[in-house]
Design goal:
The chain is α/β, with parallel strands linked by helices. The protein has seven helices and six strands, in the order E-H-H-E-H-E-H-H-E-H-H-E-E. The chain has a single domain, classed as Phosphoglycerate mutase-like (Rossmann fold). Helix 3 links the parallel strand 2 and strand 3.
Length: 191
């Protein structure tokens, strides 16, 4: 059995300003940097070792990973954040409210040069399965990615109702999953 730790990046300037941040990027805030350092301490205190480390290709994820560990890592395009098209960098108040009720924006962004929920989710699941297939049994893998990546991935395992009750996708959140026989199982939220 293989273990996957899925982690969200630290707080960014756009998170703080409540601006839409998918394909675009913004730097980590002082709080984001401190939260990543706290996550590093958490991993060390709990003697959590990672045999493999990966991050999204976006700076906020790779910067977080570099604060969490000194280990070498690989970037994965397949776990970059949802592309919100022309809504990138705009106020989050302009986005449909379905995300908070259904856990998805559906195909809303397609007509605005963005990505559909279905294609986004399929990309994330495919990338995580391909990545974990290359890992040996008994090894631990850390992937630093994004809130919507984590949410849409977890929706492939649970209902939105269960996710809303049991899981938080706050900055620097960490979820533990196992991977065996090409199947993921959620274990717990560790941070």
């Amino acid at each position: 059995m293989k273990t996957l730790y899925l982690m969200r990046h630290g707080q960014t300037l756009f998170n703080k300003l409540e601006k839409t941040q998918g394909a675009c990027d913004s730097p980590l805030t002082a709080k984001g940097i401190e939260d990543a350092k706290t996550a590093k301490q958490f991993f060390e205190e709990h003697q959590m070792h990672f045999d493999h480390c990966f991050s999204s290709t976006q700076e906020r994820a790779s910067d977080t990973l570099e604060l969490v560990t000194d280990q070498p890592y690989q970037r994965l395009k397949g776990v970059k954040e949802w592309d919100f098209g022309i809504f990138e960098g705009e106020s989050e108040t302009l986005l449909p409210k379905t995300y908070y009720t259904d856990g998805s924006y559906g195909d809303f962004f397609v007509e605005f040069n963005g990505e559909s929920a279905t294609k986004f989710q399929a990309r994330v699941i495919r990338t995580l399965k391909e990545t974990m297939a290359q890992v040996s049994d008994g090894e631990n893998t850390l992937v630093v990615c994004h809130g919507a990546v984590m949410l849409m991935f977890m929706q492939s395992l649970f209902s939105m109702e269960k996710i809303a009750k049991e899981i938080s996708f706050h900055n620097c959140a960490v979820l533990k999953l196992t991977f065996d026989n090409n199947k993921f199982e959620f274990v717990e939220q560790v941070k």
